[in-house]
Amino acid sequence: MLEQSGGGALGTKLRCSIPCLRLHVLSLDQSTASPLNYSATQLPRMNWNRKHLLDIESLTAEEILTVLDTARAFKAVGERAIKKVPALRGKTVVNLFVEPSTRTRISFELAEQRLSADIINFTAEASSFKKGETLKDTARNLEALNADFIIMRHSASGAPHFLARVLAASVINAGDGAHEHPTQALLDAFTIRERKGKIEGLNVTILGDILYSRVARSNIWALTKLGAKVTLCGPSTLVPGVFEKMGCRVTYNVEEAIREPDIINLLRIQHERQRKTMFPSISEYAGLFGLNRARMEQTKPDALIMHPGPINRGVEIESDVADGRRSLILEQVTNGLAVRMAVLFLVNGGKGPQGVAA
Ligand code: CP
After folding, report:
1. Using one digit for the tens of pLDDT, what is the confidence trace for 179-229?
2. Label partner for 180 (CA 20 to 30 A): which of 101, 145, 239, 248?
3. How far is the CA of 52 from the centre of ligand 1 (A)?
4. Model pTM?
5. How far apart are the two ends of the chain, measured CA to CA in Å?
6. What DSSP state is assigned to residue 197?
7. Would you give the distance in Å from CA 170 to the centre of its chain?
8. Is there a contact between 86 and 116 (Cβ–Cβ < 8 Å)?
9. Ligand 1: residue whose CA is nearest its atom 4
């Protein structure tokens, strides 16, 4: 999709084979681009043939990089006066959120608007779910209205995979139980790469409730595939040693876990998924594992702090840290829009408006 052309470093231009993005990418040289300096080897050709985005586990590093590179072009679109492109004109997207969400739902909806799609917002509370209609019947009814894409959040792990098997529409997983949250991991990877200029070789600590976290699982898959070294830390009841099989290091010593990393990604306690008490009290958790000003002083000076949200101030993160200059929390939200535009664009076949018309 993106290719380098032209001479030396500062004169290098990016060429884009996507008509609706070409104008915006053409002007990206190293004087105007983000701190990330692309080299020829970091510009993979478009590597995406998937109809669905269900998880990160099944993606290759090249596919992940294709999403990140496409998102970079969409971020440039979002920085100009007219932020809309016609890539999904005539397509219908259903936002099927059966579990609460603020960031993911709003970000997907804005991404769909920016891509000129028609949008249906499905709210479980106001639907015939309440009358006993099954997920499959609900989804088939939405498809009968010619839905092309279903963006789904559900409390059951595997629910989007099930829909992808029974429907003709493209399915994008917006978080399924404790399993995966692929677009969160992609926006996290995008943010890390934009800020640090690379992912390979970085030390990343994920601190908190790992056991019940879909964000943790998707991040572990994405970061290890892209060559980062991932450390997991939290109470032993919430960070079972079995996670080492995913290629991570596990430690229960928070001081050690925060000393070396380039990135510290904090996770909240997922009370809604815990079936029993996993630690004595919230205040004990905050004291033992919360990231506060004193602990920040033990981190590397250039270590950056991430959190997928929603944050619980005073539990896993103190306000000083959440609102501090090393916090990327709101940047993650901004980048989520570009990443979700990229994902929708790619699962649509990577086609511009001429493809939609065809
Ligand atoms: N990060 C995230 O998934 O937030 P929401 O639950 O608000 O969508």
Report:
1. 999 999 999 999 999 999 999 999 999 999 999 999 999 999 999 999 999
2. 145
3. 20
4. 0.86
5. 20
6. S
7. 18
8. yes
9. 103
